[in-house]
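Fold this complex.
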Amino acid sequence: MKLPRVLGLAALASLLACAPAARRPVAANASAPRWFGSTALPPGNVLRFNLGAEPETYDPDLAVGQPDGRVARMLFEGLTREDPQTLEPLPGEAYRWEISGDGRTYTFHLRPGIRWTDGRPVTAEDFRWSWIRLLEPKTTSRYASFLFAVTNAEAFNKGDVKDERAVGLAAPDDSTLIVRLDQPVPYFLYLCQFYSCLPVPRRTVERFGNRWTLPANIVGNGAFTLTYWRQNNRFEFAKNPAYWDAASVHLDRVVGYTIDDLNTSFNLYKAGVIDWCPSGYFPSSFIPYVRGYADYHHGDYQGVYFYTMCVKRPPIDNVWVRRALNAAVDREAIAQDLLKGSRRAWGDFVPTGYPGYENPPGLRFDPAYARQCLTRAGYPGGKGFPRGISILINTSEDNRRIAEAVQAMWKRELGIDVAIQNEEWGSYLQTVTALKYDVARRSWLGDYLDPNTFLACYVTGDGNNRSGWGDPRYDAMIRAAAKELDAKRRFAILRGAEALLLADGPVIPVYHYSTNELVKPYVRGIYQTPLDVHPLTHVWIDRDWRRGPPPVASASPPAPRSKAITRRAAAREKVR
Amino acid sequence: MNVATFLLRRLLIMIPTLWVIATLTFFLVHAAPGGPFQAERDIPAAAKAQLMKTYGLDRPLHEQYVSFLTHAARLDFGPSYKFPQRQVREIIAEAFPVSLELGGWALLIAILIGVPIGVIAAVRQNSSLDYAAMATALAGVSVPNFVLGPVLVLGLALTLFVLPPALWEGPQSRILPVLTLSTAYVAYIARLTRGGMLEVLGQDYIRTARAKGLPESRVVGKHALRLGILPVVSYLGPATARVIMGSVVVESIFSVPGLGRYLVNAAFNRDYTLVLGLVLFYASFLLLLNLAIDVAYTRLDPRVELA
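Structure:
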C-alpha cells in the first residue's frame, strides 16, 4: 500500500519539475524568438515585478539586503545615480562635482530646484545630516563602514569621536557638500549611489522615529513615491511628478510583489501576472528549460560561491592541507555536470567585471599536485588524516549536492573521509562566526565595482573573515592599495593580495554567480548589470514591441564616459 | 452548574495554561543557537551592542523574562526585530484577517461538502456509493497540500488560464488556495461523519423514531445527525484553530499574506518578539475554541453537562 503511494508522489513531483519543458511550444519558425508564457501587455504604463523576500526595512541607513535596497533606490536618489547599463555614476542630485588633485576632497554641487515630496528643498545639509545619521552609533546601521573613508567617520561610528563636526563632511551652503577623505577612494562615486548613502528627510525621520518609512509618513526625493505597502504582499509606487528628471520617467506605476516562493514567482511570470522575474527568483533547476526562450537573460553577477576553511583547527591549520583540499576540487565538474552549466566554474576569489582589474591565475583542479601537498602535510595517501572533519552547509538542495560532490572528490583524489553537517540558516551563521567548523560553504556578493569589496574581507580580524586566517603581508598590501592613487599600480597590488589569499588562505572558490532573469519582451530598459542593480527610472512598456526594439536602446541622458567603459559596454552588448 | 460560572472558571484556568506556554516558548526561543541580529555580512560590534541595548537583550535572561511577561500581560509584545518599523500587534492585526478568510472559506467548504458525503456514505453503507466516497476521502487525506497546490496551479492557472496562479487579489484568487486547503478537511470530516453516523444509526432511539413512522429524511437529518456529528464537532476545535491560524504551505504556494508564513519565518529569523506574540495568540485562540466546542456539545447532546 505504501510503496505505490510514494511512487505516485514521485511521479507527480517529476511531472511538476518537467512542466516547463513539457509545455514548451513547438516553434513554427526556428529563427523567430520564442517567449515564455503569456506576452499580454499590462494594463497601462505599469511594471509589475517580483521584489523578492519581504524587505526588513527600506530606511536607507538601515537597509541590509537586495530587496531593501531595491525599494530604497526607487524612493530616494543619491548624489550620483547609476547608468542603467554600466552602473557608472552619473549626475543625480548633484549635477557636477570636483575632485581635488590628491583624490581626497570631493566638492558636490547640488542641482538647483530639487525637492522632497513634501515640497521642501533638498539641501547639502540634508546629505550631511543623513550621512551623520548613517554613522551615528545609535542608528545601528550595518553599512556605516561604507563611509569610513571619510575623515573621522570610523572613530565617530565607534564612539571615540563624539563631535559630529569633526567628521569630514561640510555643507557651507544649501547647494554645496564638501567631503574630505583620509585616503583617496577611487570608487567613492560608486559609494555615493549605494543605498546606504541615499539621503533621508530629516524632519520626517525626527518626527516619526522608526515609523517614518510607513507609506503614510514617508517623504522621498527619488523617481517614485510609495503609495501602498502590505507586508508579505506588495509595494506600490507611483511616478513622482516633483522628481527633477520626471520628464524621462515613463512608468506611471510600479508594483513590486514580495514573493519568496521561487516556484510561485515562476508561475506568476509565466501567467503574465508579473513582467519581470529578477535574478534568483525562479528555481535554478528550471534554467535548462527556459534557456531557449528569448526572455531569459543571463550574465555574470558579482558574487562567488566558495568554501571557507577554519585555520584555527587542525589539520586545516596546515597550509599544505589547505592546498591539497583546494587542488582536489573539480570546479568544472560541479559547474557543468552538477549545475548543468547554469554557473561558471571559478578559481579566483574576486569575480570578473571590475574595470581594469585582472585576476591572478585561478586555482585549478590538479589531483597529482593535491596528493603531493597532502604528502607534504604528513598524510601520504590520506593515511593518518584525522577523522571527524566535516563540511558545514546551510540547508538547501544545491548546497547539499555540491557538498556531496566535494566530499566524493576528496575521497577519490586524496583518500580522506569528511562528513557533511547541515544546519538551518541561523545556527549555521552562529557556527561559522564562532569558528566552530572545519570547512563551510559561504558566498560573498560585491557592493560596488571594485575588488576591494571582496579582498577587504580577509584582513586579519575583519568581521567578515570568519576563518581565523590572517597574514601581515596581506594586510599590508590591502593598506598600501588603499593609499595608492594610480589605478594600475593599485590593481597590481590587489592582484598580489588575491594571489596570496589563494595560495595560503582559507578559501576554496567554487563558482561564479550569474544573473538569471526573465523579462517580458515589452519591458524596455532593464539591462544585465554585474551588481544585479536595475534602476527603474527609465524603464518603459513598449506597446509596439512586436515591431522590434526601438532605435535608441536607452533613454538615459547622455553622460561623459571613459573610452574603456564604453568599449566594455559595447562588448557586453555583443555578447548578449 | 450554570453557563456563566462554567465560562468564568474555564477562562481563569486559561491564565496559568498561557503562562506555562509563554514561559516554555520564551526559554526555547532564547535557547536556539544564534540571535536575531546576525547575517551573512558581519554587523560591526558597536552596532550590535547598540541593537542589543535598544531591545534589552543585553540584560540577564531572567530580567528579560519578567519584562516580557509584564508586557505580554498587557498584550504588548513590542516591535518585531526583523521588521523594526512594525509592532507585533500590527502584524497580527494585518495578517490574521487574511488567514481567517482563507481558513473560514476552507472550513465552510469542508463542512458543507464533508458532512453530506459522510451522511450519504453511512446511510448507504457498503454500497458502491459508500466505497467511492470513502476512497475519494482517503485520497483527499493522503495527498499533501504541497502536491495538490502545484497540480491545481498547473492545471487551472497555467494550462487553462482560468484562474490566477497565486496572489491574494480579487475573488478568483481565493479559489485555488481555499480548494487546496479544504480538500484534506473535506475528506477527514466525511470520514468522521460516516463513522459517527454509523454508530448512531444502530441505536435504539433511531429504531423508535422509525417505528413511530417518521420519514427517513427526518430520522437521519434530525435525530441521527444531531449525535452522529459529535465527533466532527470535537474535531472542529483544533481543526479550526489550525486552519485559521494559517497554513505555511498554502500561503507560500499562493503567496497569501497570512499568519502561517510569519510564524515559520519568525522562528528561522530568531525574531523573538514575533515568535512569542504569534505563539501566545495561537494558544489563546485554541483554548477559546476548545471552550466554545465544549459549550456547543451541551447544546447538541442533552446528556452532556457542563462541569
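Chain A touches chain B through 58 residues (CB under 8 Å).
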